[in-house]
Amino acid sequence: MKAQACEEPMSLTQYVEIGVRRRWWILGMLFVVWTGVWSATWLLPARYRSETTILIDELQVPAQKVGEESGPGLQARLQTLTPQILSRTRLQRIIEDLKLYGEGKGRPAPEALVSQMRRDIKVQPLQVAGRPDELAAFTLSYSAHSPALAQQVAKRLTSFFIEEDVRTRAERSQQTSSFLDAQLEDARAWLQKQETRLQQFKAQYLGQLPSQMQANVAELGALDNRLQNAREELQRAQQQKVYLNSLLTQYRELRVAGSSASSDVTQTPPALDAELTRLSRQMGELRLRYTEEHPDLIQLRQQLASTEKLKAQMQRELTVEGGIAPRVESAASAQIQSQLKANELEISDRQKEMGGVQVEMRAARGRLRNTPIREQQLAELTRDYDQSRAYYESLLAKKNQTQLASSLEQRQPGEQFRILDPPSLPSGPYFPNRFRFALAGLLLGAVAGGAAAYGCEMLDDHIHSRGEVETLYAVPILATIPPAPEPDSWLRRLRVGGEIAGATALLAFVTGSTFLAFIARYRD
Questions:
Q1: Distances (CA, A) of 421 to 141, 152, 292, 521
Q2: For residue 99, what is the DSSP state?
């Protein structure tokens, strides 16, 4: 019948009535469960945790001044160092030195001990405030059954971290230096090869380089001027040859005419008179442009004087020799012939000069035609040389930066691990947490008490209320008999007082013990 009555949902009042009715089941189970949990906290072995904080000191000189070869960040360094520190060899040495986890035949295998010790070690990075992706320190902790032992192991682990970090940094610096030395040597050899190729190219195509293009153009212009001057000099020499031949012919004719005539001949060759007229006219033109000290004017005066002297000599010879046979060579004729030989030699020199200038002009034009090709070839060689030089200079800069960073670490505290808080000596165990266990015991006791009360209620066949009767029987209730009042005797008062006192004492004991556990926990 109780099961049928419970098919209907109960109200809050009914739950309260059940709680009052089954109060001793609830309080009893609460006390029993809490007492069991509370007692278990005193039987569990205590664990003590020693913790230290290690931070990284930055270089006093900014990293930008010694280059970017400052090594990996703290996160990467921790990920590298932690497996090395927690290696089986290191942990076994600590276990053997400090006699961790007991001794004797019942001791677990070494692999199990190493696994246990790894579980007892905690490495926790600490993030920088405001910069969640950047780490500045980390905490290292170890838990053991003894405070002194926990502190001792934490010190050993801390020293391992610092020593391993120093060794790793030194080894990385040495490896970097060796690698850069090898790369620098290869880059130097390649750069020297490029320099040799560039020098050989410039030596092979000297005069065809782009930087010499203006010089070639200027040289071609100068050669063109030389060719023009040589051509003009050749024309002048050829004209002089015509003049001298004509003068010699006319002079000989005058001598022949003078030898057959009855009177003295005082006439000179017309070519000579024309030459004197030309020279006089040219001198007048030059005097309008130059002073008397000008080289051209001086040369022209000398030439005019020589021509006048030649005319006077011819006149003298024609006047004196009169009847001498023209077969006898005169001094004037010899002089003219000498000038003709000199003139022919000058014509030959001018022709050779023009030929040489033309050869040089063809060579200069050839160099100018090849300049674009050499420019492209030189650009390729220069690009390879510049790339090799830039690579060599970058390696040299990195090597210098690495040496500067290494020297800086040796002369001043560099970017190294530093102990901020030394391994602490625990003042109390971190496990078991009696306050949390007490709260858990209260929660479990309340659940157990409620379950016990509910179970007792389900097994009880008594009817405790009018609603249960109406639920069990579908008939109207005509009358109810009120409960008989219990006589107000001293026994009843004693029982009620005992219940109140017992409940109060039980709750006070539980509450006080939990509060004391809280005080002890957070005082530690």
A1: 12, 14, 105, 22
A2: T
| 253, 333: one domain | yes
Residue 347 sits in the same domain as residue 414: no
Domain count, the chain: 3
Considering the domain architecture, whether residues 37 and 81 belong to the same structural domain is answered as no
Secondary element (H or E) of residue 21:
helix 12-21
Q: What is the CATH number of the domain that holds 295?
A: 1.10.287
CATH number, domain with residue 178: 3.30.70.1130
Parts of the chain with a pLDDT under 70: 1-11, 14, 57-74, 103-106, 128-135, 258-267, 320-329, 405-416, 434, 460-493, 495-499, 502-503, 506, 509, 513-524
pLDDT value of position 67: 44
Domain assignment present for residue 82? The answer is: yes
Query: What is the span of the domain harbouring residue 461?
Result: 2-44+432-523
Q: Is residue 337 part of a domain?
A: yes
121 touches 157 (CB < 8 A): yes
Instruction: Report yes or no: 118 and 86 within 8 Å, Cβ to Cβ.
Output: yes
- What is residue 306's DSSP assignment? H
The Cα 359–Cα 354 span in angstroms is 9
Residue with tokens 């030989």: 341
353 and 463, same domain (yes or no): no
The answer to whether 311 touches 332, Cβ cutoff 8 Å, is no
Residue type, 503: A
The predicted structure's pLDDT at residue 322: 52
Half-sphere exposure of 68 (CA within 13 A, CB side): 2
Q: pLDDT tens-digit profile of 474-483? A: 666 666 666 6
Which pLDDT score is estimated for 225? Answer: 92
As a three-state string, the secondary structure of 459-483 is: HCCCCCCHHHHHHHCCCCCCCCCCC
For residues 141 and 138, what is the distance between their CA atoms, to the nearest angstrom? 10
Instruction: Say whether both 145 and 52 belong to one domain.
Output: yes
Model pLDDT, residue 83: 85
Together in a domain, 102 and 9: no
CA distance 426 to 422: 12
C-beta separation of 27 from 503 below 8 A: yes
User: For residue 51, what are the β-bridge partners?
Assistant: 141
Whether residue 170 sits in one domain with residue 91: yes
- 30 and 96 share a domain? no
